[in-house]
Design brief:
The structure is a single chain. With 253 residues, this protein is α/β, with parallel strands linked by helices. Helix content is 41%, strand content 19%. The strands form 2 sheets. Strands 3-2-1-4-5-7-8 form a 7-stranded mixed beta sheet, with helices on both faces. It has a two-stranded parallel ribbon with strand order 6-9. The longest helix is centred in the C-terminal third of the chain and has 25 residues. 40% of the residues are buried.
C-alpha cells in the first residue's frame, strides 16, 4: 500500500506479543516507509520488566499476575522479540524508560517523523512526545471506546460476561484512551473464547485497523466516530474480577 505524505514513522512498543505482532503488520504493509522503533524497557510507564512484575503483584490478584508473568516469559523464550524483529528488518531502535524523557523526545524529533504509532503500550504520552510527528500520533485499544478504557480490558470483558468487545483506533492525547476515534470494529465473544484466543483476535483486528488508519491519515480522510456516554475505566484485574472470571468457566488458554 503506497503512501504519499507519510515517509517516516515512529513505532512505540514493549517486549510483548501484541507489540511484536502489530510491529510486523505495520512494517509489512508499508515497505517504502522508514521506521524508528522506540522500545519501552518494561510493560508499564517508567517501569522496568522487573518493576512491571512488581506492579502486577501489588495491584492485581496474585493469580492474574502469575498467568501474565507466564505469558510474558513464554513469549520471550519461544518467539522472536520485538527487538529481534526490528533488527532483522534493519529498523533503528531506541530503548527508553520514559517516552517523555528529554533524550527520547530529542532522538524522535531528530528522526523527523510524519506519524507516531503506539503499539499496545502502557505509555502515558505528554505534549513533548505527542508533538514530535508532523501528523500526530495514533494507537489502538482493545474495546469499543469510551467503554472499557484502562488496563487488561479484554480480560475484564470476559469476567463481566460481555457478549462482544472490539477494537478502536484513535488519535493520541494526554488523557488516557480519550482521543478522536476514527476506526472501530466490534468482535463477538463466543462461548469457547479464552483469554489467549481473545488477545490474539483483538490483536489481529488491531493490526488490520491500524494499517487502514495510517492510510486514512496519509490521505487526510478522517471520519470521526463519536464516543457516546460516560464510558467506563478498569484497573488491574483484582481478586473479585478473578472470582467472576472463574465463575464463567472460561480458561486462560
Amino acid at each position: 500500500m503506497a503512501l504519499t505524505r507519510i515517509r517516516r514513522m515512529v513505532l512505540v512498543g514493549h517486549e510483548n506479543e501484541g507489540s511484536a505482532r502489530l510491529f510486523d503488520r505495520v512494517v509489512e504493509a508499508y515497505p517504502d516507509v522508514e521506521f524508528l522503533l522506540v522500545v519501552g524497557e518494561g510493560l508499564y510507564y517508567k517501569k522496568s520488566f522487573l518493576g512491571s512484575v512488581i506492579k502486577l503483584l501489588r495491584e492485581a490478584s496474585w493469580s492474574f499476575a502469575f498467568h501474565r508473568f507466564i505469558e510474558l516469559t513464554h513469549f520471550r523464550l519461544t518467539q522472536k522479540t520485538l527487538t529481534q524483529r526490528a533488527k532483522a528488518r534493519g529498523v533503528r531502535i531506541i530503548r527508553t524508560m520514559d517516552i517523555n524523557g528529554d533524550k527520547t523526545v530529542a532522538e524522535m524529533k531528530a528522526f523527523a517523523p510524519d506519524l507516531l504509532v503506539s503499539l499496545y503500550t502502557m505509555q502515558l504520552y505528554r505534549k513533548p512526545a505527542l508533538s514530535v510527528a508532523k501528523l500526530g500520533g495514533i494507537t489502538s485499544h482493545p474495546s469499543i471506546l469510551p467503554n472499557y478504557r484502562g488496563l487488561e480490558v479484554f480480560f475484564w470483558a470476559l469476567a463481566n460476561e460481555e457478549s462482544e468487545t472490539g477494537v478502536s483506533v484513535f488519535f493520541l492525547e494526554e488523557k488516557i484512551d480519550a482521543g478522536r476515534v476514527f476506526r472501530q470494529r466490534r468482535i463477538p465473544i463466543r462461548p469457547d473464547t479464552t483469554v489467549a484466543s481473545l488477545y490474539r483476535e483483538v490483536t489481529d483486528v488491531a493490526g488490520e485497523l491500524l494499517v487502514q488508519a495510517i492510510a486514512d491519515v496519509d490521505r487526510d480522510s478522517i471520519t470521526v466516530i463519536p464516543q457516546t456516554g460516560k464510558g467506563s475505566y478498569y484497573r488491574m484485574p483484582d481478586r473479585e474480577c478473578m472470582r467472576r472470571f472463574r465463575a464463567t468457566g472460561r480458561k486462560f488458554s
